[in-house]
## 1
Amino acid sequence: MRQTFTLLSVACVIGIAARASDDADHYYQTSDAEARQVVEQAKKGEHHNVLKHSGAVPTKETAIALAVAVWSPIYGRDQIGKEAPFQAIRVDDCWFVTGSLKKGWVGGTAEAVIEVADGRFLMISHGQ
């Protein structure tokens, strides 16, 4: 159930992003100069940053949502959907995220290692 919710959350985010591009004429658009200013401030530590408090990936649900979003274009949405339910295990400052393989089946599932602090993927793989 939780994984279904996570997949639906990712789908909603993708849908919102698609709608945002359709409605671009109706909303204020950040300029390249404004974006550059925020990026420069962030690099210098001068911009408000939640990462200092909880990290970019504080929960296993967030780790799973990120992994599924990255795996789907690589391995195919249908294939990744077959690997649910997903599991995220916190190991020190990283999440190890993997799909599930039914007992008795031969093969592998998608795997990822994601840093808690910044969401950087240290590894993306798929077992055979």
## 2
Amino acid sequence: MFVLRLDSGCRTFFTASKGWPNEPRFARLDNMKPCFTYWKESDGRFLGYLNDYPDHWTQGENLDDLKDHLRDLYQTFGSEQIPGIRKVEELEIA
């Protein structure tokens, strides 16, 4: 498992395994907004997920389209209590 902390404070956890995209990129939607991971598929589509919700991928025709879909997911997950949605959180140990 790898832990990455970018200078923006964005942090994500992932494990590399067979079939994992070759070079995932890490980015922020906007300042002080959730981080996401994305990559471009061989057919030109962009796939990605919110790092807080790594089980829920979405896609877009281009990067801006992907960001729109990620914003929709973020609003849905943040405004509703949906059973079965797994979320990554930090636990502070004093």
